[in-house]
Specification:
With 296 residues, the chain is an alpha/beta fold. The protein contains ten helices and eleven strands. The strands form three sheets. A six-stranded parallel β-sheet has the order 1-11-8-7-5-6. A three-stranded parallel β-sheet has the order 3-2-4, sandwiched between helices. Strands 9-10 form a two-stranded antiparallel ribbon. β2, α2 and β3 form a beta-alpha-beta unit. The structure holds NADPH dihydro-nicotinamide-adenine-dinucleotide phosphate (NDP).
Length: 296
């Protein structure tokens, strides 16, 4: 029987745990606050920001979204981030990506104070994750969600061959760095694949744990996996569907129907890594308060 790794269920548990911890902080006089900076009118970003706001509200975290039109002066955004860095009532700052044309995303991300960078995209945070020199960093929420769901389902990682298809700096690469860390949640042997990888199926077939983060609908098919593989599907892709009122449906990067027949465990899309990502963002916001100082 294939185990369905239920991200909705696990993320609910995590959100409840966060909510309990938030109540303890509130009793100590600190209410965690997350500020999201949203530039432009990208439809998917608006939806993501709304769901982050809802999740924060349910967990007792104050959330604030600062919205700018896409033609805002870059300097206004820069000034706002600097102001938020110095605002002790704000514990976490997140700039919703993608930014409109004309913005250099890394320039903006590097302005965020690393101790408030709850997305974990600042080079200080990604550098600390990669170098392993200390634990004072934020892990990006999606890769953190991958490790957390495996942990909650007691799926062993040490010694496993983890193949990651996708090398983005927000998913593929940091996920690989987490699997590579020393300890029970890491100690894996990691292989990265990308669009220039030759013989992708030959490599994916050697995976004990296969992570797909490509943005290519149903790229991973049954002939690309070995029986018993654990599959983590990060992809969120819209494909046309005449059966849906909206005219589209959401699928992952894995052909779920076929691959799930061979896998020992698999995350569904939707309902897998998506909800885990938001739960881990809440955890990072809590960490911004508890690890990086109770400021108000
Ligand atoms: P990017 O577009 O930044 O990266 C995609 C990666 O996939 C690249 O490394 C690319 O290779 C690789 N790739 C593309 N096509 C192929 C192919 N045919 N064979 C092998 N590798 C390929 O995407 P993201 O990492 O940002 O996101 C990946 C997916 O995850 C998307 O569907 C996105 O929507 C989803 N996502 C989901 C989240 C969630 O909360 N569940 C959060 C973030 C993303 P190359 O580097 O060579 O171009």
């Amino acid at each position: 029987m294939t185990l369905i790794l239920d991200g909705k269920l696990v993320s609910k548990q995590i959100r409840e745990e966060v909510a309990e911890d938030v109540q303890l902080l509130i009793k100590q006089g600190v209410t965690p606050k997350l500020t999201v900076v949203l530039v432009g009118d990208d439809a998917a970003s608006q939806i993501y920001v709304k769901s982050k706001e809802r999740a924060c509200a349910k967990a007792g975290i104050i959330s604030e979204t600062i919205k700018y039109p896409s033609d805002v002066l870059k300097q206004n955004v820069i000034d706002k981030i600097k102001e938020l860095n110095n605002d002790n009532s704000v514990h976490g700052i997140l700039v919703q990506l993608p930014l409109p044309e004309g913005f250099n995303e890394s320039e903006i991300i590097e302005l965020i104070a690393p101790e408030k960078d709850v997305d974990g995209f600042h080079p200080i945070n990604s550098g600390r994750l990669t170098s392993g020199i200390n634990d004072d960093y934020f892990v990006p929420a999606t890769p953190a969600g991958i490790i957390e769901i495996l942990k909650r389902y007691k799926i062993e990682i040490p010694g496993k061959h983890v193949v990651i298809v996708g090398r983005s700096s927000i998913v593929g690469k940091p996920a690989g760095m987490l699997f590579l860390r020393h300890g029970n949640e890491g100690d894996a042997t990691v292989t990265f694949c990308h669009s220039k990888t030759k013989n992708l199926p030959d490599i994916t077939k050697t995976a004990d744990i296969l992570v797909a983060a490509t943005g290519k609908p149903k790229l991973i098919t049954a002939d690309m996996v070995k029986p018993g593989v654990v599959v983590i599907d990060v992809g969120i892709n819209r494909i046309p569907s005449k059966y849906s009122e909206k005219g589209y449906k959401i699928v992952g990067d894995v052909d779920f129907d076929e691959v799930s027949k061979l896998a020992s465990a698999i995350t569904p899309v939707p309902g897998g890594i998506g909800p885990m990502t938001i739960a881990m963002l809440l955890k990072n916001t809590l960490r911004a308060v508890t690890v990086f100082g109770k400021k108000e």
